Amino acid sequence: MPTVPESTKTSLAQKLTARARTAWPKLAGPDIRYRGQFAYVDGELADGESIKLMRLRYGGSAGTWGFALYLASTDKYEDTILPTGSLAGTPEEALDCACGLYLTALGI
Length: 108
Hints:
Blueprint: H1 6-23, E1 27-35, E2 38-45, E3 50-58, E4 65-71, E5 76-79, E6 88-89, H2 91-105
Antiparallel strand pairs: 1-2, 2-3, 3-4, 4-5, 4-6
Helix pairs in contact: 1-2
């Protein structure tokens, strides 16, 4: 189980912040915390509220991550297939999928 290197943490934060800025302007930014091989991503809304979005699984590549959505109904993360049909993809694809579901549902 590889842990996420510091350089990859920096890269991930930059990628998700840039994507949020361009594709999800109502999102004030991502908040990322790490535990082992996982990066947990919450979305900070303009009003200061924070919502859980997804969990990314690091597999040794900064460009491809496993993807799991946060399910409020169970308060757990569930491995999920991206719209591309894969269980892994770019951080930007994962953010688009999660925000497309959660921010659209909130009317943001």
